[in-house]
Design a protein that fits this description.
With 891 residues, this protein is an alpha/beta fold. It contains 27 helices and 29 strands. The strands form ten sheets. It has a four-stranded antiparallel β-sheet with strand order 6-5-14-16.
Length: 891
């Protein structure tokens, strides 16, 4: 492990209580100043790379970002400690329409529009916004303790990334994968731009279904169609029926007369129509519906656009020109009613798309846009994934979502009618109309040589640049860039399940196309952070949680521990304040235990740690349990099971270390045997050191603060080596001994509680072991029994006579008797034992049924069956002893 030479290490002292605010600022400043997070220093180490999913510069980070980045930080801190050359590359996304909408809203409040400012001045305003929120995001990253390599920070509109975007656009274009054409897209009439599918929010709306009568020309017949958008009938260019529908087959090829406009449109046969649905006839409006657009292309139908970009009816709408689309709807319905062609209006609840940015109802709209042909890119991605050489999805069920998206992908509309973003590198000639696509700004038409060129006004969809994020951030298109050669492909992407199609899939096909490899080995998919009631957090509900508020109340470590250990991969997490409080209490428990140890370690140094001495049962047990925890935590982190990791760490630290070992350690720490004292100090210092390392990726601040107080080597825990499994610490016999002792101590304490005998009052204790081996164990550990059962007298022997009036406890391998003369009620003791007997009967019957179940016996591993048989024997033995004791008391 290479050591980084640190400077300006903070002065530390260990107060009675842990102060998160002081520790967090102190240690993050120290880490940052000394560049402990900088990758590339360990030349011979294996690289491990995560590029951060770039947050949008639209505002502050929310609790979802806190979860996403905490999981990444856990992995990067763990790998850094394991000796990897670990790079966590930070950055942010310009976020196209999202950021432009925010700035435009701010300008509107000042009574100004972007058009008043002009493109150049408006973009200056957006850059000011970006700089402000990028700084805010930096502050939040620091407060949450994220170990990012700031020396490599990127922004999607950086010069290098912009160069990558142009390179990709030109290569796609030269390969025939980018084209410009008319297509139905999601249109935001308020923002006047195309939207990606992810920018459309579907809401359940109470609407209406209008049934209209279209007359067949020169006939008394008519066809009934139904629509939720009657204003679009002005753009109808056909009515479609199923070719095998007996009701309409004779009408296919004939002509309908469009009500109001009087325009003639054909009746066509197309299998797109469902015979059983509604009237079996569908109006076809190719310029205002994506399905109708496809039908129209199959039948060479005209595409009539009846609205303009602001959502107002245009010249093709006849007398309705100039009306807002919804005002037009009301007027058309009234006119249809007057004409007698409106048959009925039904109430209809349906999903209506709204712009996530402006809130406007999204209009399916025929528009000239730039597109990427998806089929060859998708086919390549699917082939790689199915070959077994693709990305590993965790949980693996999300691979199906990814494949479904790729197998059903449509051509990708990549142009946006915005000013903020990567300007499309295409120039249109004012003389011959040719379009020139170029890596550099074009000045001469590639066809006619004219200099009358004008750059395309549109910018690229923000996903176009973020699709390149895993390799553009590392220096591509410079294939010789050092970081690209060392850190690509990346190791892990952490993201939410809601953008697998929109972002993950695009990064994969872009990487395969331009790098010939997958962009990341693993994709860890997490769910959403919901409120305590399971609702999605939103401004309208007012149930959002600000991570800085959580940190202010409980500290960053508590928030991180709660978020990272509170859910399983792929599942949503419910944010509960009481869970954060529990995590804070856990941090305090670690602090108090460490403080106790340090008070007793005195001037003990790292080089004084010696585990070769005469270890007690408790010493060997805690080292064994630490060893198991190291093994299991390492394994679980590697498979991203952070919830289970948290449970193991919590149980080991709270129960084994704090509640048991530290209590047991007091015997030697407060005793007179100097050798035993030194050994206990060694074990305590070693275990606490390893414990802080294990908890560090989850709770970086408190672990650094404690570790700096402990006897240690090195400048910072962030670069300390990760604990490894030590076979020399295996001590199964010590585990059995400690389990017996802990079981005895708990049993005696429970008996005391039942008869209200305080722990401060000494009691007689008789222990009757079942055999000589157990007797030997108990006699070896008499000191522990006397101390923690607080006995006045202690007798241990297989031949002990059973006292008449005593409280009784049964543990595996021994019977316990507490002669409590004057304190025991025989009737109450019999009732207690009968209750225990009932429980034991139940356990015996439960296991007997399980072992009698042929299905279980056939499927269960031999080891599991043997464990069940051992439990059965143990419960049966305890039942027999309780039965005998009840008989004695009744006799």
């Amino acid at each position: 492990m290479e050591e980084t030479k640190a400077t300006g290490a903070p002065e530390i002292s260990m107060p009675t209580q842990y102060d998160p605010k002081d520790a967090e600022k102190k240690w993050y400043d120290y880490w940052f100043k000394n560049e402990f997070f900088k990758a590339g220093e360990r030349k011979d180490a294996e690289p491990y790379t995560i590029v951060i999913p770039p947050p949008n510069v639209t505002g502050m980070l929310h609790i979802g970002h806190a979860l996403d980045c905490t999981l990444q930080d856990i992995m990067i801190r763990t790998k850094r400690m394991q000796g990897y050359d670990a790079l966590w590359l930070p950055g942010s996304d310009h976020a196209g329409i999202a950021t432009q909408s925010k700035v435009e809203q701010k300008l509107r409040e000042e009574g100004v529009t972007r058009y008043d400012l002009g493109r150049e001045k408006f973009l200056e305003k957006v850059w000011e916004w970006k700089d402000h929120y990028a700084a805010t995001i930096h502050e939040q990253w620091a407060k949450m303790g994220f170990s990012l390599d700031y020396s490599r920070e990127r922004f999607t509109l950086d010069e290098g990334l912009s160069k990558a975007v142009r390179e990709v656009f030109v290569r796609y274009y030269e390969k025939g994968l980018i084209y410009r054409g008319k297509y139905i897209i999601n249109w935001d009439p308020a923002a006047r731009t195309a939207l990606s599918d992810i920018e459309v929010e579907y809401k359940e709306v109470q609407g209406a279904l209008y049934h209209l009568k279209y007359p067949v020309k020169d006939s008394g017949e008519f066809i009934v169609v139904a629509t939720t958008r009657p204003e679009t009938m002005l753009g109808d260019t056909a009515v479609a029926v199923h070719p095998e529908d007996e009701r309409y087959r004779h009408l296919i090829g004939k002509t309908l007369v469009l009500p109001i406009l009087g325009r003639e449109i054909p009746i066509i046969g197309d299998e797109y129509v469902e015979k059983e649905f509604g009237s079996g006839a569908v109006k076809i409006t190719p310029a205002h519906d994506p399905n109708d657009f496809e039908v129209g292309r199959r039948h060479n139908l005209p595409q009539i656009l009846v609205m303009d970009e602001s959502g107002k009816m245009n010249e093709n709408a006849g007398k309705y020109q100039g009306l807002d689309r919804f005002d037009c709807r009301k007027q058309i319905v009234a006119d249809m009613k007057d004409l007698g062609v409106l048959i009925k209006i039904e109430e209809h609840i349906h999903q209506v798309g709204h712009s996530e940015r402006s809130g406007a109802v999204v209009e399916p709209y025929l528009s000239t846009q730039w597109f990427v042909k998806m089929k060859p890119l998708a086919d390549q991605s699917v082939e790689v994934q199915k070959s077994g050489k693709g990305t590993n999805f965790v949980p693996d069920r999300f691979e199906k979502i990814y494949l479904h998206w790729m197998e059903n992908s449509r051509d990708w509309c990549i142009s946006r009618q915005l000013w903020w973003g990567h300007r499309i590198p295409a120039w249109h000639c004012g003389d011959c109309g040719e379009t020139t696509v170029s890596r550099e700004d074009a000045t001469v038409c590639s066809k006619c040589g004219s200099t009358r060129l004008k750059q395309d006004e549109d910018v690229l969809d923000t996903w176009f640049s973020s699709a390149l994020w895993p390799f553009s951030t590392l220096g591509w298109p410079d294939e010789e860039a050092e970081d690209l050669k060392r850190f690509f492909p990346t190791s892990l992407l952490v993201t939410g399940y809601d953008i697998i199609g929109f972002w993950v899939s695009r990064m994969i096909f872009s990487s395969l196309e331009f790098r010939g490899d997958i962009p990341f080995k693993d994709v860890l998919v997490h769910g959403l952070v919901r409120d305590a009631e399971g609702r999605k957090m939103s401004k309208s509900l007012g149930n959002g949680v600000d991570p800085l508020e959580v940190i202010e109340k409980y500290g960053a470590d508590a928030m991180r521990f709660m978020l990272s250990t509170g859910s399983t991969p792929g599942q949503d997490l419910r944010f509960r304040w009481e869970k954060v409080e529990q995590a804070r209490n856990f941090a305090n428990k670690i602090w108090n235990a460490s403080r106790f140890a340090l008070m007793n370690l005195g001037g003990f140094r790292f080089e004084d740690i010696d585990l070769s001495g005469n270890l007690s049962t408790a010493d060997r047990w805690i080292l064994h349990r630490l060893n198991e925890t190291v093994r299991d935590v390492t394994r679980l982190i590697d498979v991203y099971e952070f919830g289970e990791t948290g449970r193991l760490l919590y149980n080991f630290i709270w129960d084994d270390l704090c509640d048991w070992y530290i209590e047991f350690s007091k015997l030697s720490l407060y005793g007179t045997d100097e050798e035993a004292k030194k050994t206990t100090k060694s074990v305590l210092a070693y275990v606490l050191d390893r414990t802080q390392r294990l908890i560090h990726p989850f709770m970086p601040f408190i672990s650094e603060e404690i570790w700096q107080h402990l006897p240690h080597e090195g400048e910072t825990i962030t670069l300390a080596s990760w604990p490894v499994y030590e076979s020399g610490f295996e001590a199964e016999e010590a585990v059995r001994e400690m389990e017996l002792l802990m079981d005895m101590i708990r049993t005696v304490r429970n008996i005391r509680a039942e008869v209200n005998v305080p722990m401060s009052k000494k009691v007689e204790l008789l222990v009757k072991p079942a055999g000589e081996e157990t007797e030997s164990i108990l006699k070896r550990n008499e000191e522990y029994i006397r101390r923690f059962c607080n006995t006045s007298t202690l007798e241990i022997g297989t031949a002990l006579a059973t006292p008449d009036k005593a409280m009784t406890g049964i543990v595996t391998g021994a019977e316990l008797f507490l002669p409590l003369a004057g304190l025991i009620d025989i009737g109450q003791e019999i009732a207690r034992l009968e209750k225990e007997l009932s429980t034991l009967h139940g356990e015996v019957e439960r296991i007997e049924k399980k072992l009698a179940n042929q299905g279980f016996v056939a499927k269960a591993p031999a080891k599991v069956i043997e464990e069940e048989k051992a439990k059965l024997a143990d419960y049966a033995d305890k039942r027999d002893k309780v039965t005998a004791r009840i008989a004695e008391l009744k006799g």
